[in-house]
Amino acid sequence: VIELEEAQAFVLAGCAALAPSRTPLAGALGYVLAAPVVAGHDVPPFATSAMDGYALRAADVSSAPARLAVVGSLLAGAAPTVPVGPGQAVRIMTGAPLPDGADAVCMIELTSSDDGGSTVVIAEAVPPGHFVRRAGEDVATGQVVFEAGTELTPAHLGVLATLGTTEVEVFGRPTVGVLSTGDELTDDPGALAPGKIRDANRASLLATLAEDGYPTVDLGIVVDDRAAITAAIAEGAARCDAIVASGGVSVGDVDYVKVVLDDLSAGAMRWMQVAIRPARPLAFGNLAADGTPVFGLPGNPVSALVSYELFVRPGLRQMAGLGQLGRPLVRAVCDEDLTRRPDGKLHLVRVLATVAADGAVHVRPTGAQESHLLHLMALANALALLPDGPGVPAGAPVDVLLLRAGSLTAAPAAVAGPRGRA
Ligand code: AMP
Ligand code: MG
Question: Hey, whose CA ends up nearest to atom 5 of ligand 1?
Answer without folding.
Answer: 299
